[in-house]
Amino acid sequence: MRLRKGLRVCLFCLAAVTVLIMAVACSPSSEGDTTTAAPPTVKQPILEQDPPSGETGELETESGTESGNTEEETANGNDELETPAGNRNGSAGQLYALTFEDMMKMDEALNHEMNYIAVDLSEMTQLTEDDKTYIIEYLQGFGAEIRDRTLDQLVEEENPDQSSPSLKGVLLRVDKVEINEDSAQIEGSKYRSGTGAIGVKITLKLQKGAWKLSDSEMTWIS
């Protein structure tokens, strides 16, 4: 009896062990292999990095080139805007430029089919080269060639044998000047021929540092 009871116990234990082995064998390999499982992936923050030194140098070079071109273009633009005469407000150049302009507007019949406007600056020793340049450039607004000539020079160039010279243009000349602290009175003439000329008297005022035309009249006609 005891032998049979012990045999049964052994069989029962063997069956239990067999069941346990089969259960372990049938379980998924991923669940059993805990040592080789990869850890879950953790998303790391992205850190900003400086560009390579070579790229940085190229950017700086390009920026420097663009800046240099901009400065050069600005300078060229400034050169194009400047004139040799510059700002002549209150100068003798501005005074006589306005005087000659007013002469040209008097007796405009003398301007008919003129080829040029001549100004006699030979006796006006107070004028600088900048003043003369300003006068000539200012009178170009009349759309004619501007010459610095005396009457004798014009006659010699055009009709040296004429007894009563007649010009192909008009000659503007200053004969008398009176300048005060803030005003000026100028007498002169506008000449086209012996029978086509006028005398003028022009008054100008100095206002806020610039000459302004105040009054003008014809004093004689031929």
TrEMBL record:
Residues 29-38 have a biased composition (Polar residues). Residues 57-82 have a biased composition (Acidic residues). Keywords: Signal. Residues 29-91 are annotated as: Disordered. Residues 1-25 form the signal peptide. It comes from the Bacteria. This is Lipoprotein.
